[in-house]
Inverse folding.
């Protein structure tokens, strides 16, 4: 019942690999770790969720916060590796239409 | 009226204990014959209710959240109460009355969380006295009940 956050910074892109559970306990850690990367001008961030086994609205809240910060700084956010469960969470909350997400099973970019 | 089996747990109102409740809920729902997807829905709805209690009812102060699981033949009722005190489940439920949609308004600050609870559960009722008590019901689908019955009989 914890989260692993692995950040890989490259010249053009920052990739954040997440594994574990995102809930009221772990969401603040995720926000703290990821937020600074969204404040750089024009940051290009990819968050890989393929290792996430559980997520609720606290996780959605973090991604909305990161998304807003990136938008304000001309950056981009892409979420990849979403399981069907996670995809559904973004679908029913309407976030799937607003944010750039790719499910893992579709083998998308 | 036949009373259902009832399981209750009380956790400190702190985020690190929300996951503990999910483990217990998984065990109960799995035993009742809920599908994987429905168990995941139950986990989210229950976590949202507890998170609400932890973040809004106590705002970092010490407190307890009471979580009750009422196991019926065709449905599971999850009760999350944030006054921290133990309560008589049946009395509280009988005092509930016919609450309408607008009774959830006062919980709106937890916007997305409560929306998920309403979306993922079959029935949601709210009762407020000293704290807030949320009653959330999920029904077993017909074919799941049959499959479960077969498992029990063999």
């Amino acid at each position: 019942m914890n989260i692993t956050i692995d950040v890989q910074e490259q010249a053009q892109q920052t990739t954040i690999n997440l594994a574990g559970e995102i809930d009221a306990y772990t969401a603040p850690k995720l926000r703290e770790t990821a937020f600074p990367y969204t404040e750089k001008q024009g940051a290009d961030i990819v968050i890989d969720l393929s290792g996430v086994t559980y997520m609720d609205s606290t996780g959605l809240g973090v991604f909305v916060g990161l998304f807003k910060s990136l938008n304000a700084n001309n950056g981009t956010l892409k979420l990849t590796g979403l399981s069907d469960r996670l995809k559904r969470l973004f679908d029913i909350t309407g976030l799937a239409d607003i944010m750039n997400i790719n499910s893992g099973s579709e083998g998308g970019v | 009226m036949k009373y259902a089996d009832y399981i209750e747990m009380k956790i400190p109102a702190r985020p690190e204990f929300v996951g503990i409740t999910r483990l217990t809920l998984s065990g109960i729902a799995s035993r009742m014959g809920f599908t994987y997807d429905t168990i995941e829905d139950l986990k989210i709805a229950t976590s949202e209710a507890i998170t609400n209690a932890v973040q809004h009812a106590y705002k970092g102060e010490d407190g307890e959240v009471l979580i009750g699981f009422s196991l019926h033949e065709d449905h599971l009722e999850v009760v999350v109460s944030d006054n921290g005190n133990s309560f008589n489940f049946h009395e509280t439920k009988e005092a509930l009355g016919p609450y309408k949609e607008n009774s959830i308004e006062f919980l709106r600050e937890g916007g997305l969380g409560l929306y998920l609870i309403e979306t993922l559960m079959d029935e949601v009722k709210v009762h407020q006295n000293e704290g807030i008590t949320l009653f959330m019901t999920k029904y077993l689908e017909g074919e799941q009940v049959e499959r479960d019955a077969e498992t029990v009989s063999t």
Summary: The beta strands of chain A are 3-9, 14-22, 44-55, 76-82, 100-103. The longest strand of chain A covers residues 44-55.
